[in-house]
Amino acid sequence: MKTHTNLTSKGTEGFIDWRDLWYRLDEGRGKVTLDGFQGRIQRTPNNNQAILQAVQVLQAADTKRRGYVEYNQFRDYYNNELAEGSWERAVLARAALDIQDMAPTPEEESVFGTWENLVDYVRACPSPKDFNWYWILPQDYSRASLMYYVSYRSELIHPARLNDWLLHARAVDNLPNQVVIQLLEKCRSTIQRADTNKDGYIEYSEFLRFVRVKVVTTSRSATILRRGALAVLPRNARSLENRRYIEEYSCWPPPLFMLLITLAEIITFIIYVVDMNLPVTGSGPCPTYSPLVFNPSRRYEAWRFVSYALIHSGWVHLFNNLLVQMVLGTLLEMVHRWRIILIYLAGVAWGALANSIFLPTYFLAGASGGVYAVEYAHLSNLVLNWSSMEYPLLQLLVILAVMALDLGYAIWDTYSATETATGHMAHFGGAVAGMLMGVVVLRNLEVEKWENYCRWTSLGLFVALMVCGVLLQVFLPIPEYFPDNDWSSIAQDKEEWDQAQQWG
């Protein structure tokens, strides 16, 4: 709340005009109520008699007996009925000296400070929607002459201006994002109920009731994350939808799945480095004897269609996958939580199915299927929450550029002279799974009718392709398309692998 200097006290002779008296007595809307007048004066033994007499003078001025005196009434009564130097003018002057500004109580200081910022915003950016005081006040009335707090308390704000202030004013940055969201929601759905006197405008007492929203305590890390997200969001894009999306970012519960799967992949990598007892480079070796690796001759061991994600061929392979899944996957898990598990596992499974069908003799290791699913789920997230994302078109162009580059590299690497060791079909399968499953399971903050159609279509495609992939693994009518099943033990595979490394 802003600080200001108090009005300078004067002697009774200092009030050289009736207006000097009026703007100290006025409650802000061109009238002085008898009850309000007495409530604004702190009585003392020195002024008690004068106050009683001043009330009598105001009652005499209230010729219509309405309990208040209006601007024009006071002017006419003071100039026409009260003689210069009379005791009536003297007691009014004494009352004007002792009357207090309508300062906020300690309990309402924070709310009043917010109201001040709102009023300042409205005054600095005039609009045709603003209340025209000359609808109810004379042309010679000057609200700028009112006492400081009286001026703010008596202001009237159009509901649309409150909504504009919440969306664009810098002062709103100091409010918790959760409070702003609830206020915007009230502006959108229940704003008319805030205007309890049905005059079309909101006054301070109504605003005081309006802003009483329940705030759930959040962790410091979550608060910092949300403030950082708002800091990079353009002010003109801080809509209710965007703020809702940012509010969904959470640090508690933490994104456990991405953390746990990353730790599992690191631990598995270390175990097999020790077990292989060979120097590990950026590109290998790969423990193809492992019961976790996808071995095309052991397709009957169904767990391999998922477990291969725990094995990596070299530390560069491991580092690249972990980096992408921790950055992109963690961001998605913060908002969509457990849904990221379905996307990741769907990408891993689809990656193995696609690789087995199109490259039936290739071994497969690495979490790239899941990583690509997470990466391309961001495209689904962008489509589902287009109106809630900052710079959605720019994000779409970046994603499409990455897709084009990745596809171009895959084609070049696959058909170049040197045989590739990269499972591009697993990448492709993971990407398709991520886009389809992203549409199906990711949280949609603003559901539209066409998005429901898109969701059911994606679910149908996902199930159809998954069923086809499994059936082709079992019933593909092409003789010798897949390698013969290997029924040897894991120990035999390990022994053969060791011999191959010795002779390698």
Task: Provide key terms for this protein.
disordered N terminus, 2 strands, two-stranded antiparallel sheet, mainly alpha, 504 residues
What does this structure look like?
Helix 3 (48-61) packs across helix 5, helix 16 packs parallel to helix 18 (368-384) and helix 20 (424-441) runs antiparallel to helix 21. A two-stranded antiparallel sheet has the order 1-2. The model is unreliable at 3-13 (pLDDT under 50). The longest helix has 27 residues, at 449-475. It is mostly helical. It has helices spanning 18-25, 34-39, 48-61, 71-81, 87-98, 109-124, 148-153, 159-168, 177-189, 191-194, 204-210, 220-231, 240-247, 256-276, 304-307, 315-336, 339-358, 368-384, 392-415, 424-441, 449-475, 490-503; strands at 31-33, 68-70. The N and C termini lie far apart (77 Å). It contains 22 helices and two strands. It is rod-shaped.
Topology (SSEs and partners):
Elements: H1 18-25, E1 31-33, H2 34-39, H3 48-61, E2 68-70, H4 71-81, H5 87-98, H6 109-124, H7 148-153, H8 159-168, H9 177-189, H10 191-194, H11 204-210, H12 220-231, H13 240-247, H14 256-276, H15 304-307, H16 315-336, H17 339-358, H18 368-384, H19 392-415, H20 424-441, H21 449-475, H22 490-503
Antiparallel strand pairs: 1-2
Helix pairs in contact: 1-5, 3-5, 8-9, 9-13, 14-16, 16-18, 17-18, 17-20, 17-21, 18-19, 18-20, 20-21
